[in-house]
Structure formats: structure tokens, C-alpha cells
Amino acid sequence: MGLIEKEFAEHLSNLSETEKYAFYFIDAHPYIIRQLTLTQLAERLATSNTTIIRMAKKLDLAGYSEFKYRAMATVKENTLPDQKDLIGQYRHLFTSLLDNVNFERLRYMATKIHEAKTLYIAGVGLTKPIAEYVAKRFIQLNKPTIYSYESHIIDLIPKLTRPQDVILFLSMSGETQSIIQAVKKFRYVDHNLLFSITNNGDSSLAKMMDANLSSSVPTNHFENYDITSRASLMVQADILIEIYMNMFDQPEN
């Protein structure tokens, strides 16, 4: 998901197919609107000025000028890891992460996962393989686990859960709109516990959780996409799994 798409995700369902075509073209080629006028952009898309203006208004903006400003503000200049001391940076990040591990919270999360009839795990985009990995680790520990990486399936999870089930959301930014919208539906579902692993303890997702594990890895962007390493999510997930295993999967004497 591009940064522009993420910025306006909650409004995209309002767009017509023609308007979505214009939007996703811009999302895929964000710097083009810096070079083209409204009329030139419309010609490039083989559409009308009116379509692009209508698209902007459906995104809850005053018009194309505001959309252009917001899009350019959202698309940051490429920020890549400093190659001069890459190993040192990772050493610092992991040391900071491990020094701040909250074992009480991890044990609480592990206990509730153990008590749950089913563990649901959700992750989209670049966190999809991590969600799959975490789910398979819990399945190996004989924990009934379901994972999903498709937005429309994640949206259905509130209809599938039973009391005391746990839902674990994985999101680097903690602002993934498809996950945020699904979480909002849990306000109408009783007796489920919501956990997350994010890179932002102050994110919208983290604030909606019963428990959240977070890191603070500096974000990196390239051509409108977040390319930040997901290693911190993996480390926190592995620690949670290891604590669960040590608490509840010890062989009997």
C-alpha cells in the first residue's frame, strides 16, 4: 500500500471506478502531479478535469489543489538507512528493544492466548508473511489458530469469534486502515481480547488494544512506499511465542 493510499484509505470506497483509476495512477506515480497541471493530468489519464476534482472532493478535500498539497506532503523524500554504520544501527535498535521488554505484559498476553479457544492473527502487506509465520508457530504448539491477510476476511473476524477468543494484529505503522476499520467493529463484540504488535506505541491501533507490544524503529521510505525493516515485529512476536511455550508447553515429568 502506497503512502497516499494509506492517507486516504477510509474514503476510497466512496470513489467511482473512474475516480479510483485516477487515484491509483497518482498513488503509483506520485511525483507526476508535481510536474503536471490539472488539465495535463486529465489528458494523461484520458479523463476530465471534473473527474479529478470530484475524486478530490470525495476524499473530503476542497478540490484538486488541496489534494495535490496533501499528496506531496504525504510522499516524503526517499529516506534510506545510513550505510556508514548499518550494523551499529541495528545493534542499537535491538539493544533498545530488548532492554525495554515488558515481561509482565508478555506473560499476560501469553496467558490470555492460552485461555482462548481460538487465536486469530491478522496482518496485511509486508506483515503478511510475519502473520503467517506467527500463526504456524502457534499451530505447532497445538494452539487453534487462524490467520488472515486479506482485508475483506479481516473485516469478517468480529462475526467469527467466540467469547474469550484473542485477536492479534500485526501492523508496522499501527495506522493500516483495513485493520483499524475491523477493530472498530469489535466495540460491538463482547468478551474478545485485542492484542497488537506495532512499531508505534502511540498509533491508532495501539490505543484501541487491550495490550500492545511496540518498538520505535526509524521509518524509511522509497518511491511512496514504507520500506522500514519489519525485523522488530518478528523479534517481539518470537519473544511472545517463546514465553508462551515456556509457560504452557513444557513436557510433563
From TrEMBL:
InterPro entries: Homeodomain-like_sf, HTH_RpiR, RpiR-like, RpiR-like_SIS, SIS_dom, SIS_dom_sf, WH-like_DNA-bd_sf
GO MF annotations, alphabetized: DNA binding
Record's keyword terms, sorted: DNA-binding, Transcription, Transcription regulation
PROSITE patterns: HTH_RPIR (PS51071), SIS (PS51464)
Domain HTH rpiR-type, first and last residues per copy: 2-78
Record carries keyword DNA-binding: yes
Signal peptide as annotated in the record: none
Pfam family, one: HTH_6
Residues in SIS domain copies: 109-251
Name under which the protein is recorded: MurR/RpiR family transcriptional regulator
Species whose genome carries this gene: Lacticaseibacillus paracasei (Lactobacillus paracasei)
Organism lineage: Bacteria, Bacillati, Bacillota, Bacilli, Lactobacillales
